[in-house]
Write a structure and sequence with these properties.
By secondary structure, the protein is of the alpha+beta class. It has five helices and eight strands; from the N terminus they run H-H-E-E-E-E-H-E-E-H-E-H-E. Strand 1 and strand 2 form a beta hairpin.
């Protein structure tokens, strides 16, 4: 029986090498603006993400709550200024944020900035934070901002999901390869000097 998913070998940024030969040439490639918009929609639809950073050569991952996202895909999180993650990010600010829903996945990489700016905290404050802090004036509140360099998403939602399911079943029944379309996944350049 043929595997429904291409093997992991030969991948770069999660895109199988076999994909290039299986892409449907009749489907137009989304524009850069459309890719950025779709990535933003996927990120904005999810509050719980995984944040990964480098701590002395070891990759550390932890769940974080996405507090706010701006139009340029800048992500905001809150934490305690005395937390271990703050010390790690001060040593190495490079981070990756990953999220997954039933039908979409996204990964964004960039650089973290740590802020205790009172105006920013006031703007982002949510009453639910009271279980962690003694109100919005608590000096322990810190905001971690991810300034994104690039992102990647995989989208099997809405009609795209039905289309992929059809193509997957067609491949299974015919013994052929899954026909990938440009809308299935995209790499998104979010900073001028980012490299795909």
């Amino acid at each position: 029986m043929r595997a429904l998913c291409p093997p992991a070998q030969g991948t770069r940024f999660g895109f199988p090498a076999v994909m290039a030969s299986s892409i449907d040439p009749t489907k137009p490639e989304p524009t850069d603006a459309e890719k950025r918009t779709r990535l933003h929609e996927i990120l904005a639809g999810q509050r719980s993400v995984m944040m990964f950073n480098n701590d002395g050569g070891e990759i550390v991952g932890r769940p974080m709550t996405l507090v706010h996202i701006e139009d340029d895909a800048k992500l905001f999180f809150t934490t305690n200024i005395d937390s271990e993650k703050i010390a790690e990010l001060e040593r190495d600010p490079r981070i990756t944020v990953s999220l997954q829903t039933a039908h979409t996945q996204a990964v964004v990489t960039g650089t973290a900035q740590i802020s205790q700016d009172r105006a920013l905290i006031e703007r982002l404050w949510r009453d639910e934070w009271k279980i962690y802090f003694h109100g919005k004036d608590d000096p322990a509140i810190a905001i971690v901002t991810l300034s994104p360099a690039k992102g990647t998403y995989w989208d099997q939602s809405r009609l795209q999901g039905l289309s992929f399911l059809y193509r997957m079943m067609k491949a299974k029944l015919t013994g052929g390869d899954i026909e990938f379309q440009p809308q299935d996944a995209a790499q998104v350049k979010l900073a001028p000097d980012a490299v795909h």
